[in-house]
Amino acid sequence: MTNSHYIAGRWVEGQSSDCISVNDPALGQPFAEFMAASVAQVDQAVAAARSALPAWKTTSASERAAYLRGFAEQLGQRREALITLQMRNNGKPRHEAEIDLDDAIATFGYYAELAEQLPAKNRDVPLAAPGFTARTRLEPVGVVGLIVPWNFPLVTSAWKLAPALAAGCTVVLKPSEVTPLIEQAYGQIADALGLPAGVLNIVNGKAETGAALSNHNGLDKLSFTGSNSVGSQVMRSASAQCRPVTLELGGKSAIVVFDDCDIDQAVEWIVAGISWNAGQMCSATSRLLVQDGIADALLPRLQAALENLRVGNPLTEEVDMGPLTSQAQWLKVASYFATAREEGLQCLAGGKALDRDGWFVSPTLYTDVPKHSRLWTEEIFGPVLCARRFASEEQAIAEANDSRFGLVATVCSADLDRAERVADALEVGHVWINSVQAVFVETSWGGTKGSGIGRELGPWGLSAYQSVKHVTRCLA
């Protein structure tokens, strides 16, 4: 395929010598390829965004809101094609791909509403000192670079793109080289809506392209979602430029199950937290803390539930879980299976790659995992669940918080006062109580400790792309 980069309102061919191969993970075979963007093309994209900024940031709030609603409507019109592409390139089951699309649509609609409220945010500020007046302006931060991952394409980009455009920023978007195709829908929609040239630019590529964007001195802000190893490089480049950065990084999240919990419901929440998107989520609740009084009854049912999950090709089978999205991730997860064998961990379910075409692994459960085990402390990014028992509420909180990450957690208990108390004590950015991981655009997303800097979604997501200006005037 050609013309895979959207720069200054035009589709262009990549000029790098690096070829991007797009794979179907259920087959382990490529189905598309194209040339990556060159460093010079990244320069062109940033220059286009810089050129478009003065006019775009002065458009009315209602005009920007209309474009955002147009994005939502156009995503809906492309529904079946985008769902199929999510299934084919990511290996997502249909119900997951449908939720992804609905999430992206809701995000653009929500930020359209917030964009319309922006004029009211510019307001007078009362001063204690006489003889002066003051007012506040919220202004777009400027040209922003957006680097998004492969596990939730379309969704993560919507979480960044919609508030950035709502704020009046112009954008250079770099999708993952593993799943680069679905984000092209945003360029196609920009064309269909007549979005001014340069407001949205899309450059595809591997590490060289990402580095060229994150190091570019033409950016005013960079927002990155991905691994901690790459995130640290992005942070170093931001520090060299002394510019703001938002980082949404890894997790090793806990799900805490108390002994008053309904076992069947607990199993449902646990399975969803580790098998959704084949466990390829920074928010995967991959550490199970189960109270002594319920553990002997819960673990066998959990084992059976994981073993009964239907794993297969979402395009040809009715499945609960698809393949891992890339061969690199499949090899990584397989290496943790080997580590588990070396450490002598007790495996109740799975623990192996599946002997079939594509990059499939079995949903896996290890029990009584030591706190020093690599599988307990490291983000695996696959359907690998590690369990430990606890005796008291205090112990559960201490073990859940004993992590270098702090993204999310889940608490399961019939005692809602206790559940709320534990939720308040957990050192994370988002807690679910007696629920699957339902994410709403009105709430915030982001973590503490090694899970990143800043927040996305909600009004906090919009604030991330705004700067605050005060104007003070002497009345004399």
Folded structure, characterized:
Residues 11-471 form the Aldehyde dehydrogenase domain. The active site is at residue 248. This protein is of the alpha/beta class and 476 residues long. 41% of the residues lie in helices and 21% in strands. The protein is built from 16 helices and 22 strands. The chain has helices at 39-57, 61-77, 79-90, 94-116, 118-121, 155-167, 184-193, 207-214, 228-241, 263-275, 292-307, 327-343, 374-377, 393-401, 416-425, 458-463; strands spanning 5-7, 10-12, 19-24, 29-35, 123-124, 132-140, 143-147, 170-174, 200-202, 221-225, 245-248, 254-257, 287-291, 346-349, 364-367, 384-390, 405-406, 408-412, 430-433, 448-449, 452-453, 466-474. A seven-stranded mixed β-sheet has the order 14-15-16-13-12-18-19, sandwiched between helices. Strands 9-8-7-10-11-21 form a six-stranded mixed β-sheet, sandwiched between helices. The protein is globular. The termini are far apart.
Give a nutshell description of this structure.
The chain is α/β, with parallel strands linked by helices and 476 residues long. The protein is 41% helix and 21% strand.
Biggest sheet, spatial arrangement of strands: 14-15-16-13-12-18-19
Number of helices: 16
Number of strands: 22
Shape: globular
Total separate domains: 2
Q: CATH topology of the largest domain, which one?
A: Aldehyde Dehydrogenase, Chain A, domain 1
CATH architecture of the largest domain: 3-Layer(aba) Sandwich
Strand content: 15-25%
Class from helix and strand fractions: alpha/beta
Q: Provide mean pLDDT, rounded.
A: 96
Q: Mind describing the biggest β-sheet?
A: 7 strands, mixed
How helix-rich are the residues, as a percent range? 40-55%
Q: What's the alpha carbon Rg, rounded to whole Å?
A: 23 Å
Uncertain runs: none
Q: Compute the separation of the termini in Å.
A: 66 Å
Class of the largest domain, according to the CATH hierarchy? Alpha Beta
CATH superfamily of the largest domain: Aldehyde Dehydrogenase, Chain A, domain 1
